[in-house]
Amino acid sequence: MADRFERVMVVTAHPDDAEFGAAGTIAKLVQDGCEVTYVIVTNGNKGSDDRHLTPERLAEIRIAEQRQAARTLGVEHVEFLGYPDGEVEDTRALRCDVTRQIRRWRPDLVITQNPLRTYNLYVSHRDHRVTGGVVLDCIYPLARDYMAFPELVPEYEPHKVREVHVMQWENPQLVVDITDTMELKLKALGCHASQVGDFAAVERRVRERAAELGRGRGYAYAEAYDRIVMPR
After folding, report:
1. How far is CA 182 from CA 31, 80, 186, in A?
2. DSSP code of 232?
3. Residues 23-50: pLDDT tens digits?
4. Between β-strands 109-112 and 77-83, what pairing exists: parallel, antiparallel or unpaired?
5. C-alpha–C-alpha distance, residues 185 and 147, integer Å
6. DSSP readout, 89-106?
7. What span, in angstroms and rounded, lies between the C-alpha atoms of 232 and 218?
8. Phi, psi (degrees; rounded to nearest 5) at 179
9. Strands 163-167 and 222-229: what pairing?
10. Of 63-77, 109-123, 125-139, 140-154, which gets the smallest average pLDDT?
11. For residue range 133-158, what is the model confidence (pLDDT) as tens digits?
12. Whole-angstrom Cα Rg for the chain
């Protein structure tokens, strides 16, 4: 992948989504010399059942955890859009914010979440689906077209993304071998202490899923995506 991409953007709904869905791939890209930027849509201020926490304090914790996880993987930039957790809507404001980030960081590859509902309710969280759909709309045509969001120009000129990888758990088009970066993925996940709880149980599930995705490809562990190659 490093032969094809210099700059990569990972856009997810929540702190920890990138680590659960793509950290092994991200670590490989970083090791291969890619500049990786995270864009996190929400502040994660609802993801806890601890009644002693306020949403404001939880957001601070989750932002710090995300920054630590990004450092663990070697991710250079982390941008937080600050939308409330659980309330992501496909609005002009969000589309403009995501378009701004694409034009600012000018990625060759964007990795994002699946906009389609699946039977895995954790994977197809509503915030995930809305975020994935917004990102695809921003890649084409909004980030590309000069007349879309004219208020962004000239500071943020239009940009054409070359390829998109959509996180996919069922019948993926692209399976990435993360055998060599699996331990880094788990280390990054461990940074999200407010979310993982019993980490031994989380590690077991993550290993099982990654092994399942790699089965049949000769990979001990894998992550998987649908691949969209954008027309030139």
Report:
1. 13, 26, 6
2. -
3. 999 999 999 999 999 999 999 999 888 8
4. unpaired
5. 40
6. ---HHHHHHHHHHHHHH-
7. 33
8. -55, -45
9. antiparallel
10. 109-123
11. 999 999 999 999 999 999 999 999 99
12. 17
| Two structure tokens written together for 174 | 């692209």
**If you search the block for the tokens 């880094």, which residue do you land on?**
184
Could you tell me the two tokens for 88?
A: 């992501």
DSSP assignment, residue 198? S
Q: List the one residue out of 63, 169, 162 whose CA is nearest residue 113.
A: 169
Secondary structure (3-state) at 5: coil
Instruction: Encode burial over 198-218: b for 16+ CB neighbours within 10 A, e otherwise.
Output: eeeebeeebeebbeebbeeee
Q: Which two tokens stand for residue 140?
A: 């084409």
One DSSP character per residue, 109-128 reads EEEE---S--S-TTTT-HHH
> Before 154, cis peptide (omega within 30)?
yes
